[in-house]
Amino acid sequence: QLQLVESGGGLVQPGGSLRLSCAASGFTLDYFAIGWFRQVPGKEREGVSCISGSGGSTKTAGSVKGRFTISRDNAKNTVYLQMNSLKPEDTAVYYCAADRLLFRLCVLSSSEYDYWGQGTQVTVSS
Known about the structure:
The chain is mostly beta strands. It has no helices and eleven strands.
């Protein structure tokens, strides 16, 4: 069974850091594009960052550019989202998703992705 599991969320003060992990089971992430998305109640899911299947291309939303970094470790079958300088407006449920067709590039459109994790809560508050 194909499964993605996010971890690393939690409560952090403004200006703090968290590293989210997206681990795959039942398949290898090697050739999948991976995206990180976030959602708050009452709002649409927002694309945060993505990395191509090759790992050679990434995209980052303007709202987090310079603060969030996506990376992948195929040996560990895991993709990471390093989040620095966190702000209260970063509070959301964060999801990772996998797309089996994108290899050389990735997109921040949630409709493109085939497999989704259950999400991990990130709360930025003093």
